Structure prediction request, 251 residues.
Amino acid sequence: MATYTKTNNEADKEAGVEVNLKGNSHVYETMHDVQDSENDDDDKVLINRDSKFSNISRKQNGYIGLICHALLLTLFVVVLVLAFFMYSLHKDIKEVRKNAEIQASHIRLYAKKNKALTGRVGKLTTQIKEFPSIVDQTAKLQNDSAAAIKTVGTLSNSLSKSVERASVYYPKFNAKFMGFGYPANRTHWAEYHQFTLEHCLANLYEKHALDKEWNGLAFGHSQKDGWCICYKNSQKLDVHSLHYLYYVLDD
Prediction:
């Protein structure tokens, strides 16, 4: 079996490599320490930076919180203002509605009064239109009243003269004065002119002697010619005219 023997150069080379390796190891360690130091500095820088960023972030979060609280407070105030405004608006609307109802009731009352007033005005207008005719009727009534008064005066004078000539009872003819007018019921009658009261009563008495149903007489005392009417079956006095003296024969 063959053996391999290292030469001096190879041994030196190997020894040099070890030396170099050892030297390099020291250098590496030194570099590693430097890197560790640099890394520590970097870490410190990073920590400082993170600390600054953390402080800034906390401040920002604080600002954001304050802003949020301010916004919430503002929103709360706005809600309160809106609520107060809505309450005031509702109160005003209620008041306006109440006033509107009062005004409506007043308008209805005024309309009712206006309608009644219009009706009265219409009646008054009609009365005013009828006033000329009322005046004419009044004048006519006055004329009629004057004529009636004149007629009553004439009748009064005639009646006074007739009463002076007439008697309440005529025993000769059994004739009794019943009043002014003529009978309400009768079956026959006969008119006579140019007769006095006694002549009429004598005529009726003769007719009654022949027929008992001839029993009534109306003498027109206002007639100048002495006009009279004999009645058959006369009953009840109808006071219709003052122109007549009504007599009935007693059996």
About this structure: The chain has two domains: 41-165, 168-249. Residues 115 and 121 are 10 Å apart (CA to CA). The chain has two helices and eight strands. Residues 168-249 form one domain.
